[in-house]
C-alpha cells in the first residue's frame, strides 16, 4: 500500500474554528504523499491546488461531478473550476482559513477518482 492510498482511505474529521492548521513540518511530510498538488497562498490563505486535464468538456464535467460527490460524502467542499479539457480543484479548510489534514485526505481521494 502506498502512502497516498493510506491518506485516501482515511475519513475527514469534523473541523472547528479552533482546529489547528497543519504545521510547516506536517505540510512538508504530507505534500510528499500527494506530489501532483501544489500549495498556493490566496488572500493570505494556504490552499492545495491541482489541475487535471481531459480530452473534452464532457469528461471534465464528469470528473467535476465525481469531485462534488466526494465533497458531499466527506462533508468538506473544495473550489472547483471546470473548463474545456481541464478541471482545477482547490482544497482548504474554510473554518480555519488554511490547511488541515482533511485537505490532504481529500486531495488523495480526488486523485483516486481519475
Automatic annotation (TrEMBL):
<dbReference type="GO" id="GO:0008124">
    <property type="term" value="F:4-alpha-hydroxytetrahydrobiopterin dehydratase activity"/>
</dbReference>
<dbReference type="Pfam" id="PF01329">
    <property type="entry name" value="Pterin_4a"/>
</dbReference>
<keyword id="KW-0456">Lyase</keyword>
<dbReference type="InterPro" id="IPR036428">
    <property type="entry name" value="PCD_sf"/>
</dbReference>
<protein>
    <recommendedName>
        <fullName>Putative pterin-4-alpha-carbinolamine dehydratase</fullName>
        <ecNumber>4.2.1.96</ecNumber>
    </recommendedName>
</protein>
<dbReference type="InterPro" id="IPR050376">
    <property type="entry name" value="Pterin-4-alpha-carb_dehyd"/>
</dbReference>
<dbReference type="GO" id="GO:0006729">
    <property type="term" value="P:tetrahydrobiopterin biosynthetic process"/>
</dbReference>
<comment type="similarity">
    <text>Belongs to the pterin-4-alpha-carbinolamine dehydratase family.</text>
</comment>
<dbReference type="InterPro" id="IPR001533">
    <property type="entry name" value="Pterin_deHydtase"/>
</dbReference>
